[in-house]
Write a structure and sequence with these properties.
By secondary structure, this protein is of the alpha+beta class. It is 40% helix and 12% strand. The strands form 2 sheets. Strands 1, 2, 3, 6, 7, 8 and 9 form a 7-stranded antiparallel beta sheet that branches. The chain has a two-stranded antiparallel sheet with strand order 4-5. The longest helix is centred in the last third of the chain and has 18 residues.
Length: 414
């Protein structure tokens, strides 16, 4: 079974739940797969409910770096024991570490990503600005102001605004990090009313109101990707996976005009760019572990990547998972984003992502079970502030109250 680029795209915003049916032949078994594709928020809810209740609906799940260590520790996932041919040491260290617990692998990455700045070099050149490899947010704002041209359908910058812990809060957590903030202090007290949070959200709202497209509070990855490919975004800070789409002339009207840099920094470079992998994992309750293991290891193997490259094109392979991908001359020939993508992935450090010391692991999330609910609620408040339905102070206060309530309920403190 060959999974072309549209699966790579669907894996980003519409990740896939998988049933694995019976094996029929050896040594190359014909594993029948039934795909269930859902919108990201719905998928997260169904996957979480099924595995927590031991529902057993799925033999393979698409999950990420947030769920994997939490569920692995709880015993909800099968440990994945790969053979020598899989070459687990070829996995990028950031991906392998993020999907492991105590050195044991509980998910394998179909593709991995960080976040980076994608921009229209033609517009920057016209404005007389050379974008640094790692610009500051003030420099980004200055460029956004110079290239913003809504009368001609070009907006200075596009950023996520759609509410959700994996939507707007993925980006905003990195923004808060680089402004010197954190989700929780060492006593697990939420920090949403701290100065770094207020500075970061004020900067974000002002930036998008002045130089972003209308309706930004409803935009996430797919919406901005469509805008960018139509030539309507001067800049975009988002998942590195987007680079393969916006630089593809079959999809993008500005494919020959894009360039790449690292995610902007402000007070600190710590946590400025996220780390994530949409990965395949096997629930502990699966009755078809052997078949599921063969499928997930094949679908994340070097052989699979090479097969996609040869059959579909090297610009369409799943990226961000293996060292060998970034040493492959065929891939490097077509992927002008490859170097920036790998630097972003390698530089993300979930164990040290905030300027003040934090008790949690994670860059764009805190790897605790309560974060999903907290991040979703805060995301709604930040989207409301961006849409002008709430003041920034009111949104941050509401987020603080909600986060404090969740943490007290979970007995992190009284």
């Amino acid at each position: 079974m060959l999974l072309p680029q549209k699966y790579q795209a669907s894996c980003y915003k519409n990740p896939t739940l998988v049933f694995v049916d019976d094996l029929t032949s050896a040594p190359n078994p014909d594993i029948k797969v039934k795909w269930v594709t859902l919108e990201e928020g719905v998928l997260r809810q169904r996957v979480t409910t099924d595995i927590a209740t031991k529902g057993g609906q799925f033999d393979v799940m698409t999950i990420g770096m947030y769920e994997t260590p939490i569920w692995g520790k709880k015993g909800w996932l099968q440990e994945l024991k790969t053979d020598a041919a899989y070459d687990v040491d070829d996995l990028l260290p950031a991906m392998r570490n993020g999907l492991s617990v105590d050195g044991k692998l509980y998910a394998v990455p179909f593709y991995g990503e960080s976040s980076m700045l994608m921009y229209r070099k033609d517009l920057a050149d016209k404005a007389g600005i050379t974008v640094k490899d790692r610009p500051t947010w003030d420099e980004v704002k200055d460029l956004a102001a110079k290239i913003h041209d809504p009368k001609n359908g070009v907006y200075g910058i596009c950023l996520r605004g759609k509410p959700g812990w994996g939507d707007n809060m993925a980006f905003l957590s990195t923004l808060v990090n680089t402004f010197g903030g954190q989700w929780f202090d060492m006593n697990w007290k939420p920090q949403l009313e701290s100065k770094p949070w207020k500075d970061a959200i004020t900067f974000y709202v002002d930036l998008l109101k002045k130089y972003g497209p209308p309706g930004s509070s409803a935009n996430s990855f797919n919406e901005i990707l469509a805008l960018y490919n139509e030539g309507k975004c001067g800049m975009w800070i988002d998942a590195t996976i987007a680079a393969s789409f916006i630089s593809d002339p079959k999809q993008s009207k500005v494919a020959d005009k894009v360039a790449f840099a690292q995610a902007p920094t402000m007070v600190t470079p710590k946590g400025a760019n996220w780390l994530w992998a949409w990965s395949l994992a096997i629930p502990a309750g699966s009755q078809k572990v052997e078949a599921a293991t063969k499928f997930v290891t094949w679908a994340t193997s070097k052989d699979y990547i090479n097969l996609v490259g040869k059959e579909v094109g090297w610009g369409n392979i799943p990226t961000g998972t293996r060292k060998s991908t970034y040493a492959n001359p065929e891939f490097l020939k077509v992927a002008k984003f490859a170097a920036a993508e790998k630097v972003a992935i390698d530089s993300a450090n979930p164990a040290d992502s905030t300027l003040p010391k934090s008790p949690y692991v994670g860059v764009q999330f805190a790897a605790i079970p309560e974060f999903q609910a907290i991040g979703t609620t805060v995301g709604q408040q930040m989207s409301a502030a961006l849409a002008g339905k709430s003041t920034i102070d009111a949104a941050l206060k509401a987020g603080q109250v909600a986060a404090d309530r969740e943490m007290k309920k979970a007995r992190y403190y009284k």
